[in-house]
Design a protein that fits this description.
The chain has 10 helices and 10 strands. It is of the alpha+beta class. The relative contact order is 0.12.
Length: 295
């Protein structure tokens, strides 16, 4: 079964404690999010295996069937299938305050949560999906999300530990349509994103959305997406020596040839040259004790 990505960008996020942001089910590809995701994520393995690397860890955790991975918003992470095309994952991402999350044992640290059976969780994900996207129903989707959290709590056999002293997360500017759209482009830069679909999701025409982007960021949505992808590619070149240029290009949603051409246009050198320059700067900085500069 595959449930294509559905997003709820126009939701009233403070009407209920939790609101669903994105939901779906797919064969999971490799993802690197060096600044984390803009919402809190629950990833439920339906079949296959994946590996996840979290900030502060020197190891990769294995995510198997009947396992739920919780990653709080803004927490840097990367995850990959153990074998290409062999990690079927259902996902729900949501917004909610720290106090609301803490009451369910979901704090500001990631968790790998074993469950007795993922079948009921997968059923609830599908039901949330049915009430998202074009058919988004805030109340029903949130009610089903609470049902999913209840089932997760019931099956985790006490593995979730509420952090009752967590303070509420500071309010953000998510209510701004253009900022929601920009966050969505950051979160899903690795996908083939249609600006027409994005505009439809936030309830604006393409012309209106472009005008909002120009007013806020002095750039169009497509130019903003290009910048997001190139910036992510630049960071991956510096921090992931094991990734080829082609792999990095695919991670950020660009064809390798196009990525190389646009990277050179933005930074004056091709990605391979940039990587060599940064490696040399790092060696010199290690000898001198100075931090390497960014191009």
């Amino acid at each position: 079964m595959k449930l294509t990505l559905r997003s709820n960008l126009s939701s009233e996020e403070h009407v209920v404690p939790f609101t669903v942001y994105t939901v779906g089910m797919e064969q999971q590809s490799a993802i690197s999010r060096l600044e984390g995701f803009s919402a809190h994520q629950l990833l439920i393995t339906a079949s296959g295996k994946g590996r996840v690397h979290l900030l502060g860890q020197n190891k990769w955790d294995i995510i198997e069937e009947n396992t739920v991975l919780y990653i709080p918003g803004g927490f840097p992470n990367e995850y990959v299938p153990v074998a290409d095309g062999d990690w079927l994952v259902a996902f729900v991402s949501f917004h909610g305050s720290a106090i609301a999350r803490a009451s369910w044992g979901l704090g500001d640290a990631p968790s790998v949560i074993p469950v007795r059976s993922a079948a009921r969780l997968l059923e609830l994900v599908e039901r949330i999906w049915n009430h998202s996207g074009a058919d988004y129903d805030t109340w029903t989707a949130s009610e089903l999300l609470f049902s999913l959290l209840t089932e997760l709590r019931k099956q985790s056999s006490g593995d979730l530990n509420p952090a009752a002293l967590l303070r509420p997360a500071p309010e953000t500017s998510r209510s701004s349509t253009v900022l929601k759209a920009a966050k969505f482009l950051q979160d899903y830069m690795h996908r083939d994103i249609s600006i027409a679909h994005l505009a439809e999701q936030v309830g604006y025409s393409q012309k209106q959305l472009t005008r909002l982007f120009l007013q806020t960021f002095q750039t169009t949505p497509l130019q903003y997406l290009r910048l997001v992808r190139l910036t992510a590619g630049q960071l991956l070149l510096e921090t992931n020596e094991s990734l080829s240029i082609g792999q990095i290009a695919r991670h950020v949603g660009m064809e390798p040839t196009y990525f190389t051409r646009e990277f050179r246009r933005a930074y004056g050198v091709v990605p391979g040259e940039y990587r060599l320059i940064k490696a040399q700067e790092a060696r010199e900085a290690a000898r001198s004790g100075n931090a390497p500069r960014r191009i």
